[in-house]
Design goal:
The chain is mainly α. It contains 7 helices and 3 strands. 67% of the residues lie in helices and 6% in strands. Strands 1-2-3 form a 3-stranded antiparallel beta sheet, covered by helices on one side. The N and C termini lie far apart (76 Å).
Length: 289
Amino acid sequence: MLVLQLFLTIESSLFEAIMFGFALAGIISEVWPKFMTLWNSLPGKAVILFIYAIIANFALASASGLVNSITGVSSSALPYSHNFALILMVPGWFFVTTLMALVSGMLIIFIYLFFLLLLKPFGMQRLWHKPGYRYVLSTAVARFVWTLGVALQLSVLAGQVGLLSEFSAESTSQLITIENETETSIEESEPPLTEEQAEVTSELEGDLTALLTDAKQKSIRYKRAQRQALASFIYEFEADSRSRCAHPEGTRVIELNDYEILQIAQTPEDEIGYTYTVEPCRSAAIGLN
C-alpha cells in the first residue's frame, strides 16, 4: 500500500488510515506477547503498575487543576466533579501515553538493532527471539520505520481532533513565536533561494503554519468544551438547589464548610455559562447577618 501511494500519488485519508491500521495491528501483534510475558513476571508486573500509578497521579492532578480553574476552590470540596473531570481527561492522557510508548518502543528498537549488528560478527544471529523466528534484522528495520510512521500519524490525529489541549494557548503561542524566530534566523544565515525553491519553501511553510494554527484552534475548542461540560456537571449534579445556608433564588450552592458556601449562578454571557463566588453561610444557627 505504501508503494502504491508513492507511485500513484494516492491522496486519501481512508487509504492512509487502513495502511497505518495494518501497521499498528502488526506492531501490537508483536509487542503484546512480550507485554504478557513481562506482566506474568513479578518484577515486570511491579514496573507496569508503577508506570500506571505515575500516569494516574498526573491525570488526577490535571483533573484537580481543571476543577480549581473553573470554581476557584479546591477540588476536595467537589469529589464527584473531580471524578468527572478525570473522565474528561482520559482521552487526552490516553493519546499522550500511547505516543510516549510508541516513541519509547522506537528508541528501544534502535538500540536493539545496534547491538544486533555488533553481535552478528560473533555468530549471534538471533537475539531475544524464538528459535524459529526468521528475518530478525529486516523485520526489526520494518518495525522501526512503521513505529515512527504510526507515532507521527497519531500525533497529527491528536492535533486534528484537539487532543493537544494539555498544552495551554500561551504555550502554543510561544511555540509558534519560537518557530517563526528560528525560521527568520535560518533565512538570514542561508543564501537566497531561487524562484522555484522559494515557491516550494513557501508552500511548505504555508502548510506547516496552517497545520499548527488549525491544531491550536481545535485544542482551544476542545479545552473549552471540557470546561463547559464540567461546569454544567457541577451545576446540575454536584451543587444543591436547597441548602441550610440562605442564597438567592435561582442559584445553587455547595457547602465548603460550616461557615462558607460556593454559590453558583447561571450567566449565559460568560464563556462557560456560570459564575462561582465564595459566600458566608447565613443560616438560623449561625445568624442571617
